[in-house]
Amino acid sequence: MKPSLLPLILLLLTVLGASLLVPVHAEAPRHQAGLVVRLNAAEVITRCVSFHEAQISGATLLQRSGLELEVLESPGMGLFVCGIAGVGCAVSNCMCAYPEATWGYWLRQESGWRSSPVGASGRTVRPGDVDGWVWGRPNGSSAGPLPDVSFGQICAPEEAEAQWRVWLPLVRR
């Protein structure tokens, strides 16, 4: 090989090697938020929901949870939850148990759970947030409070997968 070609070949290998340093997912970084649903006094469901956006709504978090939902959607009012995972009401009779029971929307704060001041469609969920839903009596759920569970308990770190793989070219002399 001529000595004048060696720098060109090394440059080509360097550029090729750098081009192989790509994310495993060509999409935006994966984020996660937690969801806790109390169906009754004895049954609680948790879900770790992944998303690629920087933030999503509480309604989107619930819809992406994979749980069976009965919801009414209104362009002006947003999402109204009738049933989750077979508990609650059908869309055709969304307030079937009112005033005895409805779905309450809760937010996990550092100090514990608090009732959401906005509906799920108006809530901004960011990575690491935890939202909760409780079926029961409005203003004091008959199903009991949501469990004291953190984001880390719902979305365990071992579930996270590596986002990058590095492929380096093998150069021999």
UniProtKB/TrEMBL annotation:
Protein origin, superkingdom: Bacteria
Protein name as annotated: Uncharacterized protein
